[in-house]
Amino acid sequence: MSAIPDLESLHARGAAQQPSYPDRAAVDTAVQKLRTMPPLVFAGECDDLTEKIAAVTRGEAFLLQGGDCAETFAGVTADNVRNKLRVLLQMAVVLTYAASVPVVKVGRLAGQYAKPRSSDNETRVVDGQSITLPAYRGDAVNGYEFNEASRIPDPQRLVDVYNSSAATLNLVRAFVTGGYADLRQVHTWNTDFVRSSPAGQRYETMAGEIERALTFMHAIGADPDEFRRVDFHSSHEALVLEYEHAMTRIDSRTDAPYDVSGHFVWIGERTRQLDGAHVELLSRIRNPIGVKLGPTTSADDAIALAAKLNPDNTPGRLTFITRFGAGKIRDGLPDLVEKVTAAGLHVAWVCDPMHGNTFEASSGYKTRKFEDVIDELQGFFDVHRSLGTWPGGIHIELTGDDVTECVGGGEELAEMDLGNRYESVCDPRLNRVQSLETAFLVAEMLRDA
Ligand SMILES: O=C[C@H](O)[C@H](O)COP(=O)(O)O
Ligand SMILES: C=C(OP(=O)(O)O)C(=O)O
Ligand SMILES: [Mn+2]
Q1: Which residues approach ligand 2 with their CB closer than 6 A?
Q2: CA of 158 to the centre of ligand 2 (A)
Q3: What CATH fold (topology level) applies to the domain 7-181+229-447?
Q4: In sequence order, what are the residues at sequence separation of 6 or more whose Cβ sits closer than 8 angstroms to the Cβ of residue 292?
Q5: 26: how many CB neighbours lie within 10 A of its CB?
Q6: Model pTM?
Q7: What is the ipTM of this complex?
Q8: What are the phi and psi torsion angles at 409 (to 5°)?
């Protein structure tokens, strides 16, 4: 771990997936502004999360990481943030109670505003005319609206990312410490549309059991503070170098650099080049970090990434988030896990069952089948069980709302339903019922792990 490399030297590595800003002076102004802003998270909180992920690495805890594919500035509302938090709290309770395993809770929120894209451009037919514009790269970079002005990268948006993340995190902190996350509220999280679904009813039964257990604890005089609040951490993909670099600061306690834009940051599948800018920057910070590993990852790639990103082999520092796809995980994952384990590397293994299972429906919507998501999760658990390693967690794109973006699940959403309420500006998310169903299914897998 050494000093922070300068931004120019990072760009000199030919950083992938960066915005092409037309006005460098405006970029400098935004970066200067960000450098003066206070940290969004404290280094000590990042260390706490590293400790918790170390328990995952040892097979003593399970990581639940979830949230939008892409947050939007317009989505920073009390309802939206609360709904997301609520579904994550419900999932965490299901996993903790049904599998008797401590759950480390990490939101894909308060910073998840920048998107890598498979194409630099997007073509749409507007009024019978085919129009090609720069791709939307997340609210951190440009506007979703399909017109030329909106798609121009604007560096002032990076300052907006900071402000939106601050507002989100402030609300999340208030919710998780101010009574909303109190375990005695388990029933009240199960409101509105979710309550009548089979998963909601199953949750209701479980919440009743938890409530009786809490009443019993209270009666015998045990009422620990842990029942009233939860530890919740933020995370996002560290993508736009200007932003992550400006938010990287030297911690006064340890003299070490931390990226104080979020507790946990990860490197995406498209930016994990060993000699690339993202790996370089994240190798220097001391946060807990993740790397997405797709089906083309060789065991040597993973081992080299671990050597660069976690040379001291510190447990909890490095999480490998595999995203192979349901059809590939059973063949592809064993070699990776086996060789990384044989090399003595301490990593947390987490399954992202979303990004290897995306396809385009005939209506043009990007979607995923709930059954593929569950199949990949089952494959992940099967592989780890057969190798004797710990399936450390799940990384899910989800929302607390009743959207129609992924097909299947108990509600049997069909492709023709997608248009009813498709709100994601990037990838399709599990809705609240599908998320809760996933938690129950994963709890069963976890019980057998
Ligand atoms: O999560 C997001 C990536 O940006 C996404 O999977 C790539 O999507 P695209 O192929 O639509 O660019
Ligand atoms: C872009 C993403 O994933 P990946 O890097 O795995 O494709 C994502 O998590 O939204
Ligand atoms: Mn995504």
Answers
A1: 69, 116, 237, 268-270, 292, 323, 352, 355, 427
A2: 20
A3: TIM Barrel (3.20.20)
A4: 266, 267, 268, 269, 272, 321, 322, 323, 352, 355
A5: 14
A6: 0.97
A7: 0.98
A8: 85, 180
